[in-house]
């Protein structure tokens, strides 16, 4: 039986044979990015994030999305943070391991709230395309899944840290396309 051939699988196999540091020694002056580009990887577009030292808006809008290939399967989060005028403040695209879809959706909200706190927001409005997560965080639905309860509790804990509160809005997938793209970018890159 032949394993599925992908750039990621090949990179994993190469890493088992030789650590990255040894590979870089074979190509003096090359960086990890240079090696990845030689294998056909394209770097993500430059971040539209403002300087982390700059002042944050009082109110931040978070578009959050979790991605999962298989359920459970390799998962990631995408978060687009903007001010009320739509100016992008920050973007997050991170892998979170093998998780369920609902776990990934909650992880995106939690990571977005954490980043909003770091940016000094006083109030946050979360837009997510997971109706379940939004309704649970609003208090409309009960959290029945034992594996999700700690994530729900973490989100509620983070909510209390915002001086002017957190609100949630369920949006259609097409209104959340940038967060979805960030989540998929994290899954696609190594």
> Total strand count, please?
5
State the shape: globular
CATH topology of the largest domain: Nucleotidyltransferase, domain 5
Global mean pLDDT: 83
Strand order in the sheet with the most strands: 3-2-1-4-5
Number of helices: 7
The CATH superfamily of the largest domain appears as: Ribonuclease H-like superfamily/Ribonuclease H
Order of helices and strands: HHHEEEHEHHEH
SSE-based structural type: alpha/beta
* Poorly predicted tracts of residues: 1-6, 41-55
The proportion of strand residues reads 15-25%
Distance between the termini: 25 Å
The level of helicity is: 25-40%
Query: In this structure, how is the largest beta sheet organized?
Result: 5 strands, mixed
CATH class of the largest domain: Alpha Beta
CATH architectural category of the largest domain: 2-Layer Sandwich
Can you tell me the number of structural domains? 2
The rounded Rg comes to 19 Å
Summarize the structure.
This protein is of the alpha/beta class and 190 residues long. The protein has helices at residues 7-17, 20-26, 32-38, 101-118, 131-138, 149-159, 177-188, and strands spanning 59-68, 73-82, 88-99, 123-128, 166-170.
Structure in words:
With 190 residues, the protein is of the alpha/beta class. The protein has two domains: 7-38, no CATH class; 59-188, Nucleotidyltransferase, domain 5 (2-Layer Sandwich). It is 39% helix and 23% strand. It is built from seven helices and five strands, in the order αααβββαβααβα. The chain has helices spanning 7-17, 20-26, 32-38, 101-118, 131-138, 149-159, 177-188, and strands at residues 59-68, 73-82, 88-99, 123-128, 166-170. A five-stranded mixed sheet has the order 3-2-1-4-5. A hairpin with a 4-residue loop joins β1 and β2. α4 packs parallel to α6 (149-159). The chain is globular and about 55 Å long. The protein starts with 6 loop residues before the first helix and ends with a helix. Residues 1-6 and 41-55 have low confidence and may be disordered.
């Amino acid at each position: 039986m032949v394993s599925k051939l992908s750039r990621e699988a090949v990179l994993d196999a190469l890493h088992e044979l030789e650590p990255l540091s040894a590979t870089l020694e074979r190509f003096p002056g090359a960086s990890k990015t240079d090696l990845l580009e030689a294998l056909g990887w394209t770097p993500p577009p430059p971040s539209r994030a403002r300087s982390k030292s700059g002042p944050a808006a009082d109110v931040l809008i978070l578009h959050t999305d979790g991605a999962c290939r298989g359920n459970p399967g390799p998962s990631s989060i995408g978060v687009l943070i903007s001010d009320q005028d739509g100016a992008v403040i920050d973007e997050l695209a991170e892998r979170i391991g093998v998780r369920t879809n609902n776990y990934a959706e909650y992880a995106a909200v939690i990571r977005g709230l954490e980043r909003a706190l770091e940016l000094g927001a006083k109030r946050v409005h979360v837009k997510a395309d997971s109706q379940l997560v939004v309704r649970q965080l609003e208090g409309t639905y009960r959290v029945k899944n034992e594996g999700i309860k700690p994530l729900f509790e973490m989100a509620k804990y983070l909510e209390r840290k915002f001086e002017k509160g957190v609100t949630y809005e369920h949006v259609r997938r097409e209104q959340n396309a940038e967060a979805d793209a960030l989540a998929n970018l994290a899954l696609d890159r190594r």
